[in-house]
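tl;dr need the bound structure. longer version: we got a ligand (zinc ion) that a collaborator sent over and nobodys looked at where it sits. i said id run it. heres the input, straight from their email, havent touched it
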Amino acid sequence: MASQPAGAASPLCQFGHRQSPVDIVAPVRLKLAPLDFRYRAAPLKIVNDGHTARVRFGKDSTLVIGNETYTLQQFHFHTPGGDRIGGEEFAMAAHLLHRGKSGRLLALAVLFRQGAENPALAALWPRIPLRADGDHAVFEATVDATELLPANRAYYRYEGSLTAAPCSEGVSWIVMKQPLTLSSEQLTQWKTRFTDNIRTPQSLHGRIVQESL
Ligand SMILES: [Zn+2]
């Protein structure tokens, strides 16, 4: 979910036992707290850092899970999707990165299959800065991360890591069960700008993946 190239030198990247992404197989079905999204429209601030396009948020968009409130900080994109479900690799993922009050990171992955055009991506793609200089382009237009969420709010949850160096663990991952779609044209538009930017699934090493009922 960070945007550095995968594989940079860091012991955790090579030897960690709670790494992301993963292939979600044999999840355990449980009654999990619902995801209470309280995202708000915000002025669009988007940056091209050479590895991905990242949209930054202020403090207004939050996700409440049980007693915990997480503030949305940014979202960005990967090809391919990183996390797999039952072996299926997805064309793309959006990672919505949140931080809890205690500083704990929570990453939420939305997966995309090829199919119908995605309206949220259609609004974003033309606004990605051409120059990969790390400068944020700020627009009058607003962005609401709710538009990147599937209608079905069922999810998987597991304990993982940053997906690039330093591969820090202690990151709580939520993977939305229902994938969205993007058109082949949208995928091609992205791939003409960015190379594949996520590592392959990592071993679960005995971790349990929870699945909401
Ligand atoms: Zn990511």
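gonna send this back to them w/ a short note. The chain has three helices and 15 strands.
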